[in-house]
Amino acid sequence: KRVAILISGGxxxxxxxxxxxxxxxxxxPVLVLSNDPAAAGLEKARARGVEAVAVDHRAFGKDRAAxxxxxxxxxxxxxxxxxxxxxxxxxxxxxxVRRFEGRMLNIHPSLLxxxxxxxxxxxxxxxxxxxxxxxxxxxTAELDAGPILGQGRVPILPxxxxxxxxxxxxxxxxKLYPAVLRRYVTGERTPVEL
Length: 194
Ligand code: GRF
Hints:
38% of the residues lie in helices and 22% in strands. It is an alpha/beta fold. An 8-stranded mixed β-sheet has the order 3-2-1-4-5-6-7-8, sandwiched between helices. Helix 1 runs parallel beside helix 6 and helix 5 crosses helix 6. The longest helix is centred in the last third of the chain and has 23 residues.
């Protein structure tokens, strides 16, 4: 199975996906694609022998459709079986998602359906939740709402702020996403619980 990964920044989740695919051979990373040419993840991908391309969303202003018309070109050229959003920070239109529906995954840093959207850790802390976590789900037209493929839980500890909680959740993301993708490419859909 051919896997493309979309990033916007450091790409720590992308690195774990690429490394586990290359170490274990359960799939092949064929492209890393970013909306930001300055994304540090691009070099990390190239250092691991994976083609990395940027399409700068700022070159298209508010014209989301025009940005996506450019973004989809390298993606279609890579001919992926699965597309993984990993720290990708742009909302994709339903038209774009429809092209990959049923084979596009995303990782979101909350225990969906709680806290879709942004600032998830701050919101969990302010709500007084005892735990937080991350979710890998299939991407559908509705933001952060597709079928859940796996979740990882961490405690919220006294004295936590958004940064300390984000760091704790990120370590679980790095375990969860490869665990889900490894199974997903075999057709497994029963959710992973970490
Ligand atoms: C992190 O906040 C992570 O929780 C979310 O995307 C952000 C960047 O992740 N999934 P990455 O290091 O670029 O994978």
